[in-house]
Amino acid sequence: MSLIGEAALSSLFGVLFDKLTSSDLLKFFQQEQVHADLNKWKKMLMKIHAVLDDAEEKQVTSKFVKTWLDELEDLAYDVDDILDEFATEALRRELNPEPNKSKVQKIINACVGSNGSFVRSMHSKIAEIDSRLQGIVKDKNDLELRETSGGRTKTTRSRVPTTSLVNERHTYGRDEDKKAIIKLLLSSEFSDAQLSVIAMVGMGGLGKTTLAQLVYNDDDVSRYFDLKAWACVSEDFDIVRVTKAILQSVTSNHYETNDLNIIQVKLKEKLYDKKFLLILDDVWNEDYDDWTKLRCPFEFGALGSKIIVTTRNYNVSSTMGTAPAYELEGLSKDACWHLFKQHALGATDFTEHPALEEIGREILSRCKGSPLAAKVLGGALRTKRSPNEWKNVLNRKVWDIPKEKKGIIPVLELSYQYLPSHLKRCFAYCSLFPKDYEFEENELVLLWMAEGLVQETERNKPIEDLGAEYFHDLVMRSFFQQSSNNESLFVMHDLINDLAQWAAKGLCYRLEDTLSSNEQSKMSTKVRHFSYIPCQFDGIKKFEDFPKDMHLRTFLPLPRNNMCYLTNYVPNCLLPQLSYVRVISLCGYEIIELPSSISNLKHLRYINLSYTSIRSLPESTSLLYNLQTLMLKGCHKLTKLPEKIRDLVNLRYLDITDTSLIREMPVGIEKLKNLHTLSNFVVGKDSGSKIGDLMNLEFLQGRLYISSLENVLDVEDARRVNLNGKKNLDALVVKWGFAPRDLQYESIAVDILDMLRPWTTVKELSIDGYIGVKFPSWIGDHSFSNIVDLKIVRCEKCMSLPTIGRLFSLKFLIIKSMSKVQTIGPEFYGEGCLTPFRFLEKLHFEDMQEWQDWIPCGVEYGDFPCLRELFISQCPKLQGKLPNHLPSLENFSIKYCEQLVVSIPSFPILQEIEIVGCKEVVSKNKDELCLLKSIIFSIPGLKSLTKEFMEGLGKVKNLKVIDCNELTSLWQDSLMSLVKLEIWSCPSLINISLTPTLKTLYIKGCGALKSLPMSNCTSLEYATIEHCNSLLFISRHQLPPTLKRLEIQRCANLQFLIDEGEASSLLTKEESIKRSASLLEHLYISNCPSLKCVSLRGELSEKLKHLEIWTCSKLTSLSSRDQLPMALKYLQVYNCPKLESLANKLPNNASFEYLKISHCQEIKSLPEGLHKLNHLNEIHVDNCCSLVSFPDGGFLPTHLRKILITNCVKLEALPCMHNLTSLQTLCIYECTSTVCFPEYAFPTNLKELLLKGMTNCKQGLNRLTSLRRLTIYGNGFQDWQSFPEEEDDGKMMMMLPTSLTSLWILNFPNIVLLSSKAFQNLSALEKLYVDNCPKLAYLPEGLPHTLLKLYVYNCPVLKQQCKKGKGQEWLKKINNIPLVKIDYQSIYELEEDE
């Protein structure tokens, strides 16, 4: 029987035993007089460890055993914390040895320990642990747990074996996979092989067995093979059992014998010279020796025999497979949906249960392509037809589905149980990651290291490498998948994420771990690892339920790439309480400092402050002796590292990427001998850090960036670095900053770069700002054959490039700002090199001001046989020929090379061309441009494109012409595939011919163009015309019926947009031919000062849905008949001062949803019929100074959701609103002629309200129980001295709704304070905005903990009170608000300026 991995606790116990037997710690234990206690611990723990496997088996059926295991796990973590305290104290004393002591003191130390306070505190902790351990041992005996040895035998979790039978009618979405596997089986590629093994790999529940069944029962497969056999292997890889099962499948006979020899001989006889297909389903064993024994009889079959193996483990595939593994992906959404419906309803649709369909689709989204999940979740709903019952399943976790109906966790649990114990802990830790969270390998490995989940087990193997092995093992076992968005990131399938949460068993807590908005389990004191997804503003309320006395090890927000703000309560109060924490991340938060008390967190291994605004770390950080990882990436305000960083002797990973304000490394960094990753080394000046400090950092690996090399004045110092001895570096960047123009500096630079020669395995090399006149010989030497990526930038003294052609692995090469290079020739390729640049794929030359000639190498097979992208930019003197044989070139870009005649002679698979600012372009062979799909060119002197050139562009889909000042005509008859055409700044262009295939047209700055010949563009959908000042009108004839969106901007002389009926006098007879109905849906017109009329009738507007007109100063009407299109949904008119009306009347069935009229001074009324518009959601009327009243007696549609009426100074009455029960947003601003706002007339469901100039609105606000945002101006409340003002009897003159989340207070000239009484009930308030209250001095007492944002503008008195650390309001009221801004600066920036 095969063995399953030990209990997950075993790994933790292994850590404890290692610490209890460590020679260094034993010595310290004896010194502190605690060795006897800890030795007793060891003995008790060993007895407990012996029964762990039995306990893990019994916990399934006994809740008492499960409770015992939970308590034991909690105790084990506490023991580990205490042992870590001892180790930390021992290290502290080693780094800070105490001075010589007297004999008397030594005698005392021998009796009571050398540090009395430490010993006293530890003795009390030891006594507590001792008591708990004895209780655990007693309970062990009471529970009759038995000792086991050699691991736990898999005996109790047997599963029903799979068979070859399948009902194809109930399988969905695997047709293409089935075809692909059958193709492999019947392919002639492997037909001459004696035996081929094809592995299908994927996580549990993806349908590997079902796919194998479909293939096995296919008729073509059955005819192709002489024999077929099916065997379910499962996790028990018993060779006798499996061989017997295969034999019985082949012969249909039963065999009693268990003699392997007899069984294999019989099987060999049956398979001999027969072409057979064997399915080995659900294989777990990856032992090559076992496989070779099993496969022995199979080798006697005929040529072309095949074996299909299904497995979750890629290592099995590597062991057994002879062909590349077939990676099974999840089902499509449609296929999953069909499967779900089949099991949930036994039907193909929701016709009989329409109320369940939407919930069903939400449930389906949890499946993420897993047919097992679709089947199990559907099965759980099989007898349920109530929407509430379906919602209940939606909101439950997978493992909460009743046991008799669930099949997901047991299937996936087997993958977990098969993990070795150390991987179980690592995987369970991943439950901290939310679903769909994409993570880097390095990110997770560093966290594992910090948590002690990766332990050194082999000599000379860094724990980083061990962690990487753990990670890759979990990838191979299908626990992690490569992200489809970024190949460097990984993700867990949702079901695997569920499995991780199940495996974590209360150790990990994810704050956002809810399936419904009101369901959140409380955080237990036994939780050790905590994570959450930050919101933009995280205040105290988010953390107020944190239990006291937690032994938390992980505090891990997981940012989503946007800046967030955090309450000071977390770094200053919460984190200092977490005395056992090992991982702290505040990544992505806008914080500027850490408290010095950080040094008290002596267990800390990992600090991530990346992308914060921190300026410096407290010097006490150097007391964190256990710190392994310090991440400061993107800290753009960070100016220095701690001066005593040398004391962080366990530091292994230091990332200061993109911290440009750090001018030098701290002195003593050479003491950090355990550093494996150092992103940047900044060479200091004078007495600062020296480059030679890198000498002792012999374990550096990955990427190293050495900057400020201009500060190196001693070549011997550079020699000591010994980069050549750092053989694990993959990438090296060396950079010089500004250096004096001095021959001595130039000479030193040559020697320095020579001394910085890395080991030959380096894959990336970048040289930036080098000030030497020549490159050392090692750059380009053929021994650096592993370099894939090379950048040479700003080497302005060098007159020639190094020999690069011999770097045979080079794929990406960038040469930039080499201002003295005039010729690139043989020295670049390498003298005598027959195949230079054989694998180069991308080549960029940029800003080469003196480069004149590019001399080809002249080799037989061409210069760059694999080059896919060639980019040359800002080389104003380059002329002559470019390489003329680039058989692999796909993208070709030449920009701002004013002397270059660009020839395109021989690029057979070229797809994209960009030619901008060059002298000329020619093409000699049109046939060799047959694959070209995209062209961009800009040639000032170009008058026309040659016929030869155009004839080669038959496959071009995108054409962009820019700044061709002399181009007069553009004929595109040859561009029969053109889809998108852009013409920019071609002022002489008069004639243009457009092809029928065109879908998108953009014309800008073509001042001579008088007409738009678009009529034959029968596919055109989108057109934008801008800055075409010769256009007078656009006729209906010019607009093809397929056009959906038309934008016209800044056409100064355009007068009419008209159709045939309205402009018959302007159109020719030919133009008046009846046309098919227009599809135009979106029309946008702006900044056309001569436009008088937009015709909105006839077929042009039949389908028009969206109309915007901006800043057309002469526009008088939208339609000659004062009618708006029936289909119109969105209308916005802005700054049309002569427009008098939109329309007289709106039809009852108009489709209007949005209406905005702004800065139209002549508009006196709105169209009648507004109140009958059943779809209207929003009305905005702004700065219409002639508007007197609303039509229809002021009545509006009852379902309106938003009304904004601002600066309408003649408006005499507001529309009726009391019946607008759907209204959510109301803004009334500076309507000075409006007499009043009817008291208590606010619509009751308002969520947002803005009032200015409404003096009688003080009452009734508190009735708005749904109001979320209130903006109120002080106009009319000039006498108020507080907000709100109190009456003589103490009552508030304005009662604020308790539902408010956002309050804006503006323009109260005399208020001195904000009333505490008014604010005390605002328990949901999140944002407070105060502006232009010049006398305001005090904020209310007891600001709610929910407050996340405080903005104070133009309040000079309050500004002084709110200064960080100084003002009374800061100290008492606002120091814990995540974001405080005063006069557009954060409170921290304000302090910085001062």
Automatic annotation (TrEMBL):
It comes from the Eukaryota. Residues 1012-1136 form the Disease resistance protein At4g27190-like leucine-rich repeats domain. PROSITE patterns: LRR. One of its GO terms (molecular function) is ADP binding. Residues 8-100 form the Disease resistance N-terminal domain. Residues 432-500 form the Disease resistance protein winged helix domain. One of its GO terms (biological process) is defense response. Keywords: ATP-binding, Leucine-rich repeat, Nucleotide-binding, Plant defense, Repeat. Residues 176-345 form the NB-ARC domain. SUPFAM superfamilies: L domain-like, P-loop containing nucleoside triphosphate hydrolases, RNI-like. InterPro entries: Apaf_helical, At4g27190-like_LRR, Leu-rich_rpt, LRR_dom_sf, LRR_R13L1-DRL21, NB-ARC, P-loop_NTPase, Rx_N. Pfam families: LRR_R13L1-DRL21, LRR_RPS2, NB-ARC, Rx_N, WHD_DRP. Residues 691-818 form the R13L1/DRL21-like LRR repeat region domain. This is Disease resistance RPP13-like protein 1. It comes from Quercus rubra.
